[in-house]
Amino acid sequence: MLVDWENKLAIDYYDKYGDPIPVQELPGFVGSMWDGEVMLDASLGKLADFDWNEYGMLADELGEAERKLSIHIDGKVLNIEGEAWYPQVFIDQLPSVNAIYDEPPDQGPAAGSGYIFIAEDGFSDDQILAHGNALCKALSIDLKFINEAINNQPEQG
Predict the structure, then answer these.
(1) Helix residue ranges, H only, 40-124
(2) Is residue 27 within a helix (H) or strand (E), and if so which, with residue range?
(3) Who contacts 69 (Cβ-Cβ below 8 Å, separation ≥6)?
(4) 2: how many CB neighbours lie within 10 A of its CB?
(5) Which of 1, 96, 117, 121 lies 20 to 30 angstroms, CA to CA, from 41?
(6) Tens digits of residue pLDDT in 69-113
């Protein structure tokens, strides 16, 4: 899935008075990813505790980093796909969450970048929780599949 992350959305870091807004206080904030470290709010349920590093490393070890998942949300099946090393791609495909490329203004040359996860308008807290839990369930099943596939590979040598 190709997304032009840098031009997807802009984040307004200042309130109407020109004062800075901490990222965690942005309306609808449900998490962030900074320099590869995923930090999700409890509003996304079990997804907040998912081990994205293990998922990426094991999918890479298997040689199948491109993953395809099916999740059941809101009475429908949603197909989600992406490379295991890019959590923002999976999270952004939830209908209730938007991943926004985050490169704050006026940062120095050594500063990093990442993504801010914002709840989409029109979704209840219960829906956001259900979507996060559904994605976590699919990722966990896929991680188990990856582990089994690695363990069943013939020995080299």
Answers:
(1) 52-62, 87-92
(2) none
(3) 79, 80, 81, 90, 135, 138, 139, 142
(4) 5
(5) 1
(6) 999 999 999 999 999 999 999 999 999 999 988 766 666 666 667
Closest CA to 129 of 90, 103, 101, 94: 94
Length reported for the chain = 157
For residue 86, which of 125, 115, 108 has the smallest C-alpha distance? 115
CB–CB of 146/57 below 8 Å? no
> Which phi and psi angles does 21 have, rounded to 5°?
-110, 120
- CB contact at 8 A, 38 and 44: no
- Vertex 100 angle, CA 141 and 48, to 5°: 35
Model pTM above 0.70: yes
